[in-house]
Design goal:
The chain is an all-alpha fold. The protein has one domain: Farnesyl Diphosphate Synthase (Orthogonal Bundle). The chain has helices spanning 30-36, 45-52, 58-78, 83-98, 110-123, 128-153, 160-170, 173-178, 188-191, 194-221, 228-236, 240-264, 271-297, 306-312, and strands spanning 10-12, 314-316. A two-stranded antiparallel sheet has the order 1-2. The chain starts with 9 loop residues before the first strand and ends in a 7-residue tail after the last strand. Its EC number is 4.2.3.-. It is an enzyme of class 4 (lyase). Keywords: Lyase, Magnesium, Metal-binding.
């Protein structure tokens, strides 16, 4: 920035999903599940789950709500943990998921018991295939969370490629996508199809882009640099407007690849399998929209002005919080 330049007071969010083919779709069981699930009302993670899983029945919607709230518990505790503490938290949580019928020690980190209760509810409707896919993806997520804590402790600065490599797991989107499968039975070899794999990767990356654009303001105010906007500004020596433009162009290229892969997913001769694959890949497209609209409809990033900002796209830059 030139010496005499004035710091911006506002910035404009690109409307990058204006042409996304999947519209907003809310699960009809939202209000009931919101009351029954452990709720963090300001963020309304139950709304996120109900937008993300609009076709799930009441039980599936509730399990989705509990997953979103489990993510919140993990974030809340690991954000203030050191590497050793985060490693213990990850280990006991994974043990709780693998052994849900075992009572947890009273002195143990509360996140393990939250995870155990979530998983016990999930098992009432979960297929064995889903269970395996979910546990595998959640383990990757927890390992990445520990790595993020290590990076924060060591003040390690990511480049753009390194940031994406880690963020694809720390964001929790892969286990969230797996939850689409909770009552489905899609074989491993089908899930590993190159086009379905490309859809999963593309969906994760689009959600990272949208989330980090929407969360940038509150994160920069508390000097949190684990955000794509901050990484791009630092890595490419761009100002905020330039970084948002660069990320918007990146997003467009990811969307192009996503839609191409979507059009190339094969049809299967087994009608049941074909329906389930279609449901899964449309579920990913829907999740991208769900994440975007939740960012404005909850109060997590924009307070009570979210719906206004969703229309105007203009955001007032928050001042830095006192150290």
């Amino acid at each position: 920035m030139p010496f005499n330049a004035v710091e911006p007071t506002h910035f404009r969010l690109p409307d990058i999903l204006s042409n996304w083919p999947w519209p907003r779709h809310l699960n009809p069981h939202y209000e009931v599940c919101q009351k029954e699930s452990k709720a963090f009302n300001l963020c309304d993670f139950n709304l996120l789950a109900s937008l993300g899983y609009p076709l799930h029945g009441k039980d599936g919607c509730r399990v989705g709500c509990e997953l979103m709230n489990l993510f919140y518990v993990i974030d809340y505790y690991t954000d203030v943990a050191n590497e050793a503490e985060a490693k213990v938290q990850a280990d006991v949580l994974m043990d709780a998921l693998r052994n849900p019928h075992m009572e947890r020690p009273p002195s143990e980190w509360i996140g393990a018991e939250v995870a155990r209760q979530f998983w016990l509810n999930a098992l009432h409707i979960a297929t064995p295939t889903f269970q395996r896919h979910f546990i595998d993806s959640f383990e990757m997520y927890m390992k990445a969370v520990v790595r993020e804590v290590q990076d924060r402790t060591e003040h390690y600065i990511d480049g753009i490629e390194e940031f994406f490599d880690l963020r694809r797991d720390t964001c929790g989107v892969k286990p969230a996508f797996a939850m689409i499968e909770i009552e489905l039975d899609i074989p491993d070899e089908v899930m590993q199809n190159e086009h379905i794999a490309a859809i999963i990767l593309g969906g994760v990356d689009i959600i990272i882009v949208v989330n980090d654009m929407c969360s940038y303001n509150v994160e920069q105010a508390r000097s949190d640099d684990h955000n794509l906007v901050a990484v791009v500004m630092r890595s490419l020596h761009l100002d905020l407007a330039g970084a948002l433009e660069w990320i918007s162009d990146l997003h467009d290229s990811i969307v192009e690849k996503f839609l191409l892969a979507f059009s190339q997913v094969p049809h299967y001769t087994d009608p049941k399998l074909d329906r389930q694959v279609t449901q899964f890949i449309h579920g990913i497209g829907n999740w991208v929209r769900a994440n975007e609209v939740w960012s404005f409809e909850s109060e997590r990033y924009f307070g009570k002005r979210g719906r206004e900002i969703q229309v105007t796209r203009m955001v007032e830059l928050l001042p830095k919080a006192a150290p």
